[in-house]
Amino acid sequence: MSDERLDILDLAQAYADTIDRRDTEAFVSLFEPDGDLRIFEHGELVPTAQYRGRDQLAGVMGLVTIYPSTFHLVANHRCAIAGDRATGVTYTSARHLVERSTGLIDLEMLIRYEDQYRRRDGAWRFQRRDVFRQWTTEHAAERAPLPT
């Protein structure tokens, strides 16, 4: 894999990491200053939410801080590079811990991201990231200690 492809894959993985660590500043830095994040729900053709520019992107963390913990696993990643621009697709299993009166729930969202990337000053960033939630599942969860 070329260094360029690895750099773009690292960008996709950094996105997941900054969300799980709740690092708003690092999250926002992954986007171009006029970057765009659009969220689509279950096959909708029009975004249900859109965040443009770093000030609005900083508000995205509020979507996940309602969960005590999240865990994003980045899986399939493909990209096509043309100079300082690229497009790509990334698949992710995004798990969200939910506290309910009946106990803990693992809310899993299977997500496909469609991305437009831009390289500036040697660094790749998101110009646009479209989030397509494919479906969700719920499972019982617990915070049991590891056996010793």
Question: Could you characterize what this model shows?
Answer:
The chain is an alpha+beta fold and 148 residues long. It has a single domain, classed as Roll (Nuclear Transport Factor 2, Chain: A). 22% of the residues lie in helices and 55% in strands. It contains four helices and six strands; from the N terminus they run H-H-E-E-H-H-E-E-E-E. Strands 2-1-6-5-4-3 form a six-stranded mixed β-sheet. A hairpin with a 7-residue loop joins strand 1 and strand 2. It is globular, with a radius of gyration of 16 Å. The mean pLDDT is 94.
- The run of helices and strands is HHEEHHEEEE
CATH fold label: Nuclear Transport Factor 2, Chain: A
The overall strand count is 6
Q: Which structural class best describes the helix and strand composition?
A: alpha+beta
Q: What are the salient characteristics of this protein?
A:
148 residues; alpha+beta; 4 helices
Q: Layout of helices and strands, plus pairs?
A:
Elements: H1 3-20, H2 24-29, E1 31-41, E2 49-52, H3 53-57, H4 61-64, E3 70-82, E4 85-100, E5 103-120, E6 123-141
Parallel strand pairs: 1-6
Antiparallel strand pairs: 1-2, 3-4, 4-5, 5-6
Structure in a nutshell:
Helices cover 22% and strands 55% of the residues. The protein has helices at residues 3-20, 24-29, 53-57, 61-64, and strands spanning 31-41, 49-52, 70-82, 85-100, 103-120, 123-141.
